[in-house]
Amino acid sequence: MKAYFSFSLAFLYFLLNPLLISASAGDWIPEQIQCKYHCEKNYCLKTESPLDEGVDILIDPPFIPSKQSVTPNLIDIFLLWDCQSLCDYQCQQLTTKMLQEKIANTDLETQREQELEIEQFHGKWPFVRIAYIQEFWSTVFSLGNFIPHFTALSKLNKNQNIYLKPNSNNNNNNDNNNTNLLINNYKLVALMGCCAWISSFIFHFRDLIVTEKLDYFFAGATVLSGFYAISVRVFVGGDKNKQTKYGKLGFLLCALIFMAHILRLYFDWSYTYNMRFNIFFGVLQYIMLITVGISNYFKYKGNKYLNVFKLSFTPIFLVFFTGLSMSFELFDIFIPSLQIDSHALWHCMTIWPSFKLYDFFIEDHKALMSSQKEDNLSNTSDDLKRK
């Protein structure tokens, strides 16, 4: 949920596009280069290092990790850590420790003049592995975000079963089956959300090309499924005829768009394209979510049996709340003592809104079903009067 376009652009830029720049400032620190070179040469059984060309090599580097620290154990091997990747990681830690010592022994004015600060490596902060996890808090909060989507599946099933109980009137059963296509759409969103946050969990646990791509693919699937579900809610609602005519067509269209999206990335991986794709459908999705809230207000404001505030202001509030929480992404901060960064904080802030979003979907669906039943009774009454 995005409050303003600027927030959405910034969020998707940083979240879905973290590696647009091929290298970070930390990758070019001389001590980091020397450390990696000598570590790979001495411990990784390589005849030559990828750093051989164009590097002024010192005979004695300022620091180098121990052989034991870059020798992968069984868990490292299982998580696809090898000597080279461990050299890179350990050298990042040693380089960061060097920077921290310089900062601690330098006054603020000199720090500004020399631009002394902790640097990123490969587009990420130098996190310390905790229990073999590369980004501990992002991993934990990704798992936390999985929970509301997972629990939503059972909530949506329970709500759907209420309306699918046998009824003596077959026409009513058909109406229920069609209007419950909305719930099926929300279940699809929840399922894609589960896949997306599990992928995020794996990616933050171990950053590899394959885990990165899975994270990006399912992020796109989540955005597109949300766009489809809310589009159906806005333009089709609970109208069974429109559901039959346009619901499946819309699903097929979105499925084809997603397949084309995956093929585009498979044959020509582009962070810029991926960013634009998610921005486009993400912004549309949340514009329509606000539209649902506004529409509900005018539709139900005179109904004393419904919670109009919950049905109308909840989606708008969630958009603004999530937009404000995205400010963490604008200020790319890192707190070494806590091993947490702004991206992890943003993940933390999205857990509660996800619970509330599915609660809104369910309440909105109940109100829509109730409203449709009233309309059907009214139409039946009018027909009887005409007869």
Automatic annotation (TrEMBL):
The chain crosses the membrane at residues 186-205, 217-236, 248-267, 279-298, 313-335. Involved in the lipid remodeling steps of GPI-anchor maturation. PANTHER family: PER1-RELATED (PTHR13148), POST-GPI ATTACHMENT TO PROTEINS FACTOR 3 (PTHR13148:SF0). Residues 1-25 form the signal peptide. Keywords: Endoplasmic reticulum, GPI-anchor biosynthesis, Membrane, Signal, Transmembrane, Transmembrane helix. This is Post-GPI attachment to proteins factor 3. It is found in: Endomembrane system; Endoplasmic reticulum membrane. Its main location: membrane. InterPro entries: Per1-like (IPR007217). The keyword Signal applies. One of its GO terms (biological process) is GPI anchor biosynthetic process. It holds the Pfam family Per1. It comes from Hanseniaspora valbyensis NRRL Y-1626. It is a multi-pass membrane protein.
